[in-house]
Amino acid sequence: MFSKNIIKPFGLAVAGLLASTHLTTAAYADCEPDPYIGSICMTAASFCPTQYFTLGPVQYVQISQQQALFSLLGDTYGGDLRTNFGLPATEGRVLRSEGSPPGLVAVDQGMIFGSTHVYMTESSMPTHTHTATYAPFGASGPGLQVSTEDGTKKIPAPGDYMAVSNLNGTQSKSFIAAGNADPTVNISGGYISDLPPEQPIEISDTGGDGAIPISPPQLGMRYCIAYDGIYPPRT
């Protein structure tokens, strides 16, 4: 027989080993071996462990094969509810708690909402203004470019400049061809009559019409749902 002095250290060693094993297992087990049925866990592994279905796109499970899970999920995630029921479709979605928090969208369990991109329309844009400046005479205001050379033409042609009046008998030549007009000066302070009536200024379009991505930076992981384990008690 073992002496008490031998048994006591041996028992402590076994207890310590069991405690150490339990803590190590718990530390590494997000998807635990005896989960509550219907609970969801996340893993970085390429597969879900035994007792778990891999979640992703829409998928349906036979009621006859998973009656316990069906009793918990019911029609929340789809299915015909006669032969099959749906599992949560997590593909491309971030899971969020149900509820109606102030200032946020009210969410019911199983509700699918949200979008990865959004299109801005004229009605959805905030009210704003665009500033446009109409300067038909340039930045210096009303003015007229004239030549400082003597005029060579009595009757102007399109593109000619006004020039220094060159009196030749009774014929005053007050115009000069553009090619001979230099140097020129700007005469300001006058005005032009019979301008066209006031008209709106159209600002040309800019930018593209593509959708704006609104998804924050994310990392894809694997979601698993327990179909075998402990039936969750009601509180």
From TrEMBL:
- Identify the keywords attached in UniProt to this record, alphabetized: Signal
Per the record's keyword annotation, is Signal included, yes or no?
A: yes
**Superkingdom, taxonomy of origin:** Bacteria
Q: Which InterPro entries match?
A: Phage_tail_collar_dom, Phage_tail_collar_dom_sf
Signal sequence region? 1-29
- What are the residue boundaries of the Phage tail collar domain, all occurrences included? 38-94
Which Pfam family is an annotated match for this chain, by its short name?
A: Collar
Q: What is this protein called?
A: Tail Collar domain-containing protein
Organism placement in taxonomy: Bacteria, Pseudomonadati, Pseudomonadota, Alphaproteobacteria, Rhodospirillales
